[in-house]
Amino acid sequence: MAFVINNLKDNSNVAIADQLGGFTVLEYISDLSCTSVAAAEANYYMSKSNMRRKQLMIEINNSEIMMKAGAMQYTVGSMEMTTGVKGVGGLMRNLVSGAVTGTSAIKPLYKGTGTIMLEPTYSYIWLIDVDNDHIAIEDGLFLACETTLDISVVARSNLSSAALGGEGLFNLSARGKGVLALQAPIPSEEAVVIELQNDVLKVDGNFALMWSNTLQFTVEKSGKTKMGSAASGEGLVNVYRGTGTVWLAPL
């Protein structure tokens, strides 16, 4: 079996924004499907603000990927899709993990040889080479990954503090070696990357998009006393302590 996809990568209106392994981020330079003046005006200002539609293309060759449920637009080639759920016990574990992390309970697996196109999005798509690392991911960012990665749920070290800090009590984590695709609110080149060596990062708000799972997360008062916290106007802050890396959205 063989196939050719025409007018996609070879389309002059499509740019390759990023590529890692079999994962390719396609970006549409202009929206050529405007059917009204209002849509054309909106498209003009969106393009000036770097708001362009993007699509993730995943090409697999006798391999397997996991994907966010409902993200697939179409597939071409010889592959099979499974839920990756084994029995009622597996379904219940997925339902629980989906509920606590804010992601879909069932994440489809695509195995075989072919091309998978995901739905267009105006969000930014990050391709991350997880190289024998273990990283935690902010709720709702997961898009797809190679199944060589172990995707699991990690709990906060202090659950009551996590609730106070505006962060989820649980997060997805990716461990091992493989490509991870995230759907983020900012372009990757805008992320502030902070590397800690037995040090402390305090963040006022949930601006952290990813962080090393080696870091301890707590929520603490910004001042030493309640009065001091109130006077500073900050109150509680998210604290990442130890050795590892944190990726922050600056805005």
UniProtKB/TrEMBL annotation:
<dbReference type="InterPro" id="IPR016031">
    <property type="entry name" value="Trp_RNA-bd_attenuator-like_dom"/>
</dbReference>
<protein>
    <submittedName>
        <fullName>Transcriptional regulator</fullName>
    </submittedName>
</protein>
<dbReference type="InterPro" id="IPR036983">
    <property type="entry name" value="AIM24_sf"/>
</dbReference>
<dbReference type="Pfam" id="PF01987">
    <property type="entry name" value="AIM24"/>
</dbReference>
<dbReference type="InterPro" id="IPR002838">
    <property type="entry name" value="AIM24"/>
</dbReference>
